[in-house]
């Protein structure tokens, strides 16, 4: 079904508008847009979004699904305003039969990363058995799915497994032709982000190396790497998924580091505020056809008391200004948002939905 902005407004508390991004490509060429959070009401945590101009200028987003089946929902939009649930990556028992063994509410599919490369949609994620010790490699089943047609459930492959004692894995294709997997873990030696070369078709991985330890917040998660203006930017979340959740960033001239932390960290968080929107974190960045940057993140509409949030962890969106060779600036999350001019309204998304 579509989730039009007017409907989302009805589901969102009335809060003041946040200022739009103050710098970045496209600013000043057209009036800022107004949009409303959450863009996906209800339980859609850990969003990962891309813009695929080769696929009819469409935006695609994936979300965590834990023990739900079908799992890993995919939403699509052409205008960033009307979103359609076009299907699920995990839609057949034979794709991942081990899901039936994970009974705990915090088990199942964690934090998928969706990317598009060489005319193929790739999704890398972790199946977690939360009843097993953190040091047990069988607790973490890291997997790769791929598809040529995300509107067709049968297009999504069976899982390709790879060895990594951790979670929240993502693929990255470097300019030299090498492919990497980056992932997170927090136990024994402390929190860290690791990286290794990978063959996405076979799951074969090279040596894992620690590339960043975060800023000191607990439980680093959701690492994403972006190459821009000669820098490798590493986005992550820290602080746990409660009210101290935050988005942090580091960068390096080399894919393997060393990574230097942004002196303005955290780059996005509603911790220690009175906002209805709390637990903001686990973000992903993408740009539109005009080169303007956006971010999605998870959030709960709980208020700072964090006592009642029946809609669960939802997906919110914000505008990001990203000057050349500089750090990005995120607009704080609220219900009514101001951001870059959006594409023209369009609801002609394929698929049954």
Automatic annotation (TrEMBL):
GO terms for molecular function: hydrolase activity, hydrolyzing O-glycosyl compounds. SUPFAM superfamilies: Arabinanase/levansucrase/invertase. GO terms for biological process: carbohydrate metabolic process. Pfam families: Glyco_hydro_43 (PF04616). Transmembrane segments: none annotated. InterPro entries: Glyco_hydro_43 (IPR006710), Glyco_hydro_beta-prop_sf (IPR023296), Glycosyl_Hydrlase_43 (IPR051795). Keywords: Glycosidase, Hydrolase, Signal. The record marks 168 as: Important for catalytic activity, responsible for pKa modulation of the active site Glu and correct orientation of both the proton donor and substrate. Residues 1-17 form the signal peptide. Belongs to the glycosyl hydrolase 43 family. This is Glycosyl hydrolase. It comes from Staphylotrichum tortipilum. The lineage of its organism: Eukaryota, Fungi, Dikarya, Ascomycota, Pezizomycotina.
């Amino acid at each position: 079904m579509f989730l039009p902005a007017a409907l989302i407004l009805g589901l969102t508390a009335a809060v003041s508008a946040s200022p739009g991004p103050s710098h970045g490509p496209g600013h000043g060429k057209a009036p800022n847009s107004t949009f409303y959070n959450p863009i996906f009401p209800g339980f859609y945590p850990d969003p990962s979004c891309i813009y695929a101009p080769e696929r009819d200028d469409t935006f695609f987003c994936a979300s965590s699904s834990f023990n739900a089946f079908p799992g890993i929902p995919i939403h699509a939009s052409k205008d960033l305003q009307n979103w359609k649930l076009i299907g699920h990556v995990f839609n057949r028992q034979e794709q991942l039969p081990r899901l039936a063994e994970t009974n705990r509410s915090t088990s199942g599919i964690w934090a998928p990363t969706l990317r598009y490369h060489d005319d193929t949609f790739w999704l890398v994620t972790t199946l977690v058995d939360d009843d097993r010790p953190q040091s047990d490699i069988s607790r973490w089943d890291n997997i790769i799915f791929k598809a040529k047609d995300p509107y067709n459930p049968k297009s999504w492959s069976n899982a390709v497994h790879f060895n990594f004692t951790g979670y929240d894995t993502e693929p990255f294709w470097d300019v030299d032709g090498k492919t990497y997997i980056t992932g997170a873990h927090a136990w024994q030696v402390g929190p860290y982000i690791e990286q290794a070369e990978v063959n996405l078709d076979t799951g074969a991985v090279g040596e894992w190396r620690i590339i960043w330890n975060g800023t000191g917040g607990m439980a680093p998660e959701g690492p994403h790497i972006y190459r821009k203006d000669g820098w490798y930017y590493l986005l992550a979340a820290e602080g746990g998924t409660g009210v101290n959740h935050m988005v942090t960033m580091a960068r390096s001239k080399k894919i393997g580091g060393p990574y230097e932390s942004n002196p303005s960290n955290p780059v996005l968080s509603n911790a220690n505020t009175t906002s209805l929107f709390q637990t903001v974190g686990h973000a992903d960045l993408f740009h539109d056809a005009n080169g303007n940057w956006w971010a999605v993140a998870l959030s709960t509409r709980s208020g700072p008391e964090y006592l009642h949030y029946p809609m669960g962890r939802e997906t919110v969106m914000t505008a990001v200004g990203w000057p050349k060779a500089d750090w990005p600036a995120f607009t704080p999350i609220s219900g009514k948002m101001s951001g870059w001019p959006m594409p023209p309204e369009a609801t002609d998304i394929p698929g049954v939905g």
